Automatic annotation (TrEMBL):
<dbReference type="Pfam" id="PF20598">
    <property type="entry name" value="DUF6795"/>
</dbReference>
<dbReference type="InterPro" id="IPR046474">
    <property type="entry name" value="DUF6795"/>
</dbReference>
<protein>
    <submittedName>
        <fullName>DUF6795 domain-containing protein</fullName>
    </submittedName>
</protein>
<feature type="domain" description="DUF6795">
    <location>
        <begin position="13"/>
        <end position="118"/>
    </location>
</feature>
Amino acid sequence: MGLSSHLVLFSEVQGTVLKEGRPVQGARLTQEIVWSDNKNDVPPSTVSSGSDGRFMFPAVERDAGVMRVVPHQPVILQKITISYEGVEYTAWRHTKNSYEANSEMDGRPLRLECELTRAADFEGTHYGICKAL
């Protein structure tokens, strides 16, 4: 990590919300991040899925500041929930242990397929109804 680098708390996320294999329009997705003692340091971000079921969250970054010189192990709690037709789904839960972009998927971009009829379960190091593509 260079002196001018940023800390990536949550890499860019692109995905699709499906129900029984068909795109879901208007699902509300909320992204939450906890990475410091101040639980409200990063306010939640909300988007809605489009007519094709697609959604996108931009990368969430912070300036490195003194964190670039203080030895520590990052522990970043990531969560995405989906609300649709009065039901809330756990889409993505993950603990990120690096400030590098795309470290959630070992360097691959974060692309998700979220099937509302799928039971939440573990897939590798993340939990939820979304499957990494």
